[in-house]
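Database export, one record per block. Field names are fixed; values are copied verbatim from the stored entry.
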Amino acid sequence: MILEKQASMIAAALRRMSLKTRLTVATVGLFTLFIWVLVFLSVTVLQDRLESVLSAQQFASTRHSAIEIDNSLLDRQEGLRRVAALLPADLSDQVQQAALSNRPLLGIYFPGGSLLLGLDGKVIAEHPPGGVRRERDFKDEDYFRQVVATRQPYIGKPGIDPVSRRPTLTLAVPAFDEEGRVRAVLTGAVDLTAPNFSSLASEQAQEGKGAFFVVSLRDRRIVVSGDSGRVATPLPARGRDVMLDRMADGFEGSGVGVGADGVSRLYSGKRVQMADWLVLSVLPTEIAFAPVRVMRNALYVVGALLTVLALAVLRGMTRRMLAPLDEAGDAMRRMTDGRAPLAPLALRRNDEIGQLIGNFNHLVEDRSRYETALRESEQRFRLLVEAAPDAIIVQTGGHIVYANTAAISLLGARGEEQLLGMPVLAHVHPDCHEMVSRRIRALDSGSIYVPPLEQTYLRLDGTPVAVEVSAVRFRYEAQDGALVYVRDITERKALERERESQALRLVGLSRRLLAVQEAERRRLSAELHDRTSPNLSALSIMLRTAEQQGPLAGTEARTALLEDARALLDDTTASIREISAELRPPVLDYGGLLPALESHAESFAARTGIAVRIACPAPVGRLSPEIESSLFRIAQEAMTNCAKHAGAAHIDIALRLEGDQLVLVIADDGVGFEREQLLRPGHGLLIMRERAEFAGGRCEIDSRPGAATRVTVSIPVGTRGTRAWGSSDEEVSI
């Protein structure tokens, strides 16, 4: 959160800066970043290289010292072995003392003195003579026991000599007899503070800066040190000096570590294999890497100076280069403040600033052309609004301030002056006041658009009119308001009401259709039950009787029985054909509408005694199965109604083409009926009308009591792909 706040403050400060300042800051920032990245990389690389060089140099010196110490110990040990090999066979004190006294080399190599010890640990002889060690017993010393046990030379543990009270190191070698048995032990004590041994430490250590140690890893004691007070002292406990522990575990080389006193140092270590010693050079990193710090500080100072110099140079260059831009900015401000007219600026050079000024000049020219085009566009827009078919109203503060011609006509005004200044709600039906007020408040509170919504407006004479209103937020003559689009939907509402009425009729028609289908099924069931079921039952009885009579029955009886069964079969077949024809006459499918009407008229006349005449004055092609079926059923229903209710003696059927309309007329000479009977449930007249509407046509029924009835059906048909049948003067009387 704090970082985001600081970043936003920095961004705000940058936005308030001028272009020159931002350019200078950006350039100097990038240059400074480059300089300091270069400085840091240089410091890092040089520091690593110098540290590597210093570490390698210190390790080389340490390794040289380790080699010298190894050679020095080897020389001393080899000298002791040669002296031991030359000792007389007689181990008497006088003989051996004389032999050691004739070896001046022992005094040089072992300034701490040399002893010849018997196997009982007693001193046989010493060098230089006259020492005070003869009374001591050395059989418990580690070097004595190791030499006797291993028969090999041994370097003892560094310690404080009890006689001289000085730190010493004892070397011991065995003395063998002629048979190769150990007969004595020759020792030499090295004074660790003597100049010929401790000079190694004083030569390596830098006075007051570093330290040099020779450490016995076996005994964890300091053998040699530049500080004589630390000779023969134990090493720090493991864990207190990590780098020392690492070298004690076998690492050889250089590395940086923190000592037991918390000081960072550069360590270099090399092992002396002969004595299992470690030669260790230690130098504080503050001293070792002092040249690196000097170099780093010098680079930092150079980087700072370069940064200041770059800032000054870039600031001056920026002022000089952006001076034309400042002049152009001042001129633009005077134009925008109205202190100077809008005019092109002088173009002095063709650089980026010159291109900017040139673009400004093009903008000035475009502005002039734009203002001219804007005035022309406003004029065209006003003409477009005035000629719009929908009403357009502009309201500000809840009052009408503009109305186009369609709005004047919609509200029934004589002119715009009758509407200007009037409250918007004065032309809104009271039932819609709350809704309109809410939409106006929504636009005033910031909404850009309110969607179309049906409302009721009032004309000036108070007549309501159904409208659909939408509005957008609009600013008119420096005032906030709304541009309102009003569309008269009176006709659309009437069509919607008609559609709802048709939908209700369709629902009723579907219900009646289901009822008709169910009635047709019941009629079919009754016909099958009344006409075919008795015949089939009688036929079954006859067959069973014939079966029971068997071959004993006479020929005449059997013949009579079979003739009766055949007659029943013929009657049943005829009944089924009649029922099938009533359901769907086959001739309608293969012959068409006119043959089907002729076939039905013939059977109808035979069944009812009513004469039927069919006239088709012009040939008509085959129609779609749906139209043919609908017209046939209408004619069938009309003839059935005539037989049931009209009491007519004659029926005339006419089929003709009138343009793209196929007209079917069924007329009788019966008693007629009241028009109210058309709406009675179950009456065939309503079914005929609905069949005609299903086929896309209409059915008109003309009748009154005491007069004939005339049914006229008109259905639009096409003539493509039709086949003509009949003739122009064809008339069939049945």
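Remark 1: Confidence is low (pLDDT under 50) at residues 204-208, 719-734.
Remark 2: The CA atoms of residues 466 and 603 lie 59 Å apart.
End of record.
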